[in-house]
């Protein structure tokens, strides 16, 4: 009997990476926000709400995606999440001027939920095909999220300035819907595929993946490692969430010209992408904990420095914060699979992200309460606590 040919795992990785481009959707709101604020007559807080919601609800979508994977399969889960996301974006595009809350519902709630649902599969499935290179694979798939912001922001800004909010959001919906069709090429490894992948080799931690305990989400959440990992990840969030929306305006307040501040934002965006690609790959070579210690130390020093720095030093420090954040969001999916296995990776990673989502929502209120400088110092302290907790991981 002729043996069934194993799928090309590099095609699967490429397809997952292309589809993951659409999940840079939160980063386009930075160019949509002022147009929505003006067109719908909203306050700054109200026009920023869709971004807060899409970030905060993302973890819930991850958990649903992981659950659905074991009911309907990864590919169907990606299509379901993509349909919910694109439907939400279409709803946001059609929001009447007297119903601006539909933008928060569509772009924020449905967009974040559907995006998280599909994203959990696009990071989990490629890791199963590359058991010894999970860091590299995570960096490639999640790195595409960073590239998305770089490419989509100028395109959206161009369309917004000429044809307005509705046309720009419809354009985004169509582009994302087309790219999501790449899910046709994403599939999970069968039992025979997994046997072939592990045959004659060992996974990163010294055992084949099939020999490791595969934790369900309930089992995982009862472990000390879960509490430590989810807390450490959450403690890295304040630095980036506080710095990101203020990079340009704060840079100009610290002595940069408009063009220099824009160059700083671009440098920080590039650093974010570099962190997503390079740091997980380095963790395959040097070990996860060593790279995590390095980036949490860098984050602690950098975000505290941002509280007072100006000029070129300001650009260097905000770039360092963004480099760290890129590494964090790419490394932690691998940390989760290292500790708890890949079988339930989607739902497990969503559970780890619960703290991430809560902190993302709460951070803007910290700025109102503590002010910019003190908020940055507190973010540095949080990162320092994360560095300390790595001792127990």
From TrEMBL:
The keyword Plastid does not apply. InterPro entries: MFS, MFS_dom, MFS_trans_sf, Proton-linked_MCT. Its main location: membrane. It comes from the Bacteria. Residues 9-393 form the Major facilitator superfamily (MFS) profile domain. Pfam families: MFS_1. Keywords: Membrane, Transmembrane, Transmembrane helix, Transport. It is found in: Cell membrane. The chain crosses the membrane at residues 40-64, 76-95, 101-125, 137-155, 167-186, 225-243, 263-282, 294-327, 347-367, 374-392. It is a multi-pass membrane protein. This is MFS transporter. It comes from Claveliimonas bilis. The lineage of its organism: Bacteria, Bacillati, Bacillota, Clostridia, Lachnospirales.
């Amino acid at each position: 009997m002729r043996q069934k040919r194993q799928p090309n795992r590099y095609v699967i990785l490429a397809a997952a990476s292309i589809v993951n481009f659409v999940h840079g959707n939160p980063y386009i709101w930075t160019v949509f926000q002022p147009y929505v604020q003006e067109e719908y007559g909203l306050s700054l807080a109200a026009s920023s709400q869709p971004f807060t919601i899409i970030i905060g609800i993302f973890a819930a979508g991850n958990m649903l995606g992981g659950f659905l994977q074991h009911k309907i399969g990864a590919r169907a889960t990606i299509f379901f999440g993509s349909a919910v996301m694109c439907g939400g974006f279409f709803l946001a595009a059609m929001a009447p001027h007297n119903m601006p809350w539909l933008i928060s519902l569509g772009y924020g709630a449905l967009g974040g939920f559907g995006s998280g649902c599909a994203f959990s599969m696009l990071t989990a499935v490629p890791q199963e095909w590359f058991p010894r290179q999970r860091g590299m694979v995570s960096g490639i798939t999640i790195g595409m999220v960073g590239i998305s912001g770089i490419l989509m922001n100028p395109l959206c800004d161009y369309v917004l300035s000429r044809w307005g909010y509705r046309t720009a959001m419809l354009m985004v919906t169509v582009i994302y819907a087309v790219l999501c069709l790449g899910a046709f090429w994403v599939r999970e490894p069968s039992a025979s595929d997994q046997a072939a992948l592990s045959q004659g080799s060992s996974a990163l931690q010294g055992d084949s993946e099939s020999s490791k305990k595969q934790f369900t989400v309930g089992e995982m959440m009862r472990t000390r490692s879960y509490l430590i990992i989810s807390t450490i990840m959450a403690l890295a969030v304040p630095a980036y969430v506080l710095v990101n929306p203020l990079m340009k305006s704060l840079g100009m307040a610290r002595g940069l010209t408009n063009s220099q501040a824009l160059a700083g934002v671009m440098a920080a965006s590039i650093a974010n992408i570099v962190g997503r690609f390079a740091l997980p790959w380095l963790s395959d070579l040097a070990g996860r904990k060593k790279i995590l210690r390095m980036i949490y130390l860098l984050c602690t020093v950098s975000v505290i420095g941002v509280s007072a720095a100006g000029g070129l030093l300001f650009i260097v420090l905000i770039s360092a914060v963004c480099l760290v954040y890129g590494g964090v969001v790419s490394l932690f999916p691998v940390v989760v699979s290292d500790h708890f296995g890949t079988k339930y990776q989607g739902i497990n990673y969503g559970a780890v992200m619960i703290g991430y989502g809560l902190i993302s929502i709460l951070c803007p209120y910290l700025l109102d309460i503590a002010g910019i400088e003190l908020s940055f110092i507190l973010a540095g302290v949080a990162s320092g606590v994360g560095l300390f907790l790595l001792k127990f991981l």
